[in-house]
């Protein structure tokens, strides 16, 4: 896959479900994921890793226990490892995530929103 050209917008067009990240490509030991978000996710942490959000379209709020971080198109925010957070988006958001391979979307929370990483065809 490292020799393939991938188009982010085309990849996002192929995603129909919210909160289901798909691997776009990998860089060293990190996955670059595309995802559509809508509604409120679950409160969770990633004890072993930071999590980078890059919003491509829409407005995303990353709720932290001590503040809310508001992101719009082209905004980047890194949730530090071990920091409890809960993303929410009243309207659809399209985003890129950068995380180490194997990072689970619900972190330590688990539950029915946990998604196996999906591959784009």
Q: What would you note in describing this structure?
A:
By secondary structure, the chain is mainly β. It has one domain (8-102): Jelly Rolls. The chain has one helix at residues 8-13, and strands spanning 22-27, 30-40, 51-57, 60-64, 68-71, 76-79, 85-100, 118-119. Strands 1, 2, 3, 4, 5, 6, 7 and 8 form an eight-stranded mixed β-sheet that branches. Strand 1 (22-27) and strand 2 (30-40) form a beta hairpin. The model has no long low-confidence stretch (mean pLDDT 88). Residues 102-121 are annotated as: Disordered. This is Cupin domain-containing protein. It comes from Gryllotalpicola daejeonensis. Residues 39-95 form the Cupin type-2 domain. Pfam families: Cupin_2.
Outline the secondary-structure elements.
Blueprint: H1 8-13, E1 22-27, E2 30-40, E3 51-57, E4 60-64, E5 68-71, E6 76-79, E7 85-100, E8 118-119
Parallel strand pairs: 1-8
Antiparallel strand pairs: 1-2, 2-7, 3-6, 3-7, 4-5, 4-7
Q: What's this, in brief?
A:
Helices cover 5% and strands 45% of the residues.
CATH architecture designation: Sandwich
Q: Give unreliable regions as ranges.
A: none
Order of helices and strands: HEEEEEEEE
The CATH homologous superfamily is named Jelly Rolls
* Number of separate domains: 1
The proportion of residues in beta strands is over 45%
Give the biggest sheet. 8 strands, mixed
Helix/strand/pairing class, anyone?
A: mainly beta
Shape: globular
Using only C-alpha atoms, the radius of gyration works out to: 13 Å
Helix-residue proportion: under 10%
Average predicted confidence as pLDDT: 88
Domain Cupin type-2: 39-95
Pfam families: Cupin_2
InterPro entries: Cupin_2, PKS_Associated_Protein, RmlC-like_jellyroll, RmlC_Cupin_sf
Protein name: Cupin domain-containing protein
